[in-house]
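Input.
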Amino acid sequence: MPDFDPQLAINVLQAHPQGFGATAQERDDYIKEAAARLGGRSSEDRREAAKLAVETSKMFLTITVGVLVAIFAWLQFARTNHVPWLSGTLFPFYLASILLVCSMICGFLAISRIYKRADGREAATEPAWSTEPVSARLNLQSWTGAAALLVLFVGVVMLGLGPAVQPAVSVTIPSQAGTLPSTGSLTIEGTWSELRLKTAAQQEIKLPQQTLPVTVTCQ
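Output.
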């Protein structure tokens, strides 16, 4: 026995409606009821399901854009604290960005295919409204988005638990050879006529009178 095709049965009923009622309205109601029972869902139900899938995909896309903006903010914060670009701390942020981009691509492709089927440019002989052909892409959009959020959470935890990077201080004095690099705090003591610069490593520079301007660079 061949596989039962509900759509074929519905087409046969629609082609021979004479025995399903005395009036045209009765025959039409009978065929609609038969189509609903044979197909399980009417075309209107499928259209509503497809519209709901599109709206859900759009909502995921909006959330994805917001999370991407948050990732860029975290990367800027990390770079401000001198975390290297190529580091294990920033790797989860890169991975989360890639997963989010994949999620966006899947969402766009799913929406595009739903519109193409509804317009008849794709699968013209099949039902126009159906979420089955795009279910894999919709599922992939959801799973990659969820995975990106999990990886982003791991990245934020790693960034918070990472070692604090001390700022670097460099003092340059004209007419002096070299500079005085330091990591940590910088203490400036004395009067304007006799100024002393003392670093956290107890390195000290005494500026005599008539000294040219001094450049202090903090990174």
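Residues 168-218 form one domain.
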